[in-house]
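Hi all, a correction to my earlier message: I attached the wrong file for Pectinesterase inhibitor domain-containing protein. Here's the right sequence:
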Amino acid sequence: MNPISKLFLVILLTICPHQILAKEGSDFIVQACDHTLYKALCVKTLQSDPESHAAANIHILAKVVLKHAASEANQILDQITKLHGQTSDQVIEQCLSDCSENYQDAIDQVEDAQLALESNGYDDLNTWITAAMSDADSCEQGFNDQPGHKSPITDLNNTFSQLCSIVLALTNQLRGH
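and the right structure:
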């Protein structure tokens, strides 16, 4: 390599290292997300979080998605709290009350899953995340069981469950499944 090419390369790496590393990180993210059911959400979630850009392994990506699942669960609980008391429909009020309990449990379970991930306890993580997904499903099912009553948080429930599914798919890659 001639001296001018070397100089150009050094200048390029000095000025644009983040773009070059981001491309590598982006490729790694896409490859990891290829093994999930919700590839678009996986890629969007990971690419939006700076922590995943320099991720050297799937463990870090799983940690990032788990962090987003925890945030989503907290936002859903906040939304349920805002909706609670805004309607005179007692069926909706009861469903929201049940959902509040479900999401309080889901938040605890996601926190337990985060601890399990840190200790490479993938079986425990699977148990906790599956339970959190079940809580979201129970919330949604509570509305579905009441004819004429639609859940006001269906989209939020779905996003939370999809993030949990992504966590399971990523950690299954870590476990070698």
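Sorry for the mix-up. The chain has eight helices and no strands.
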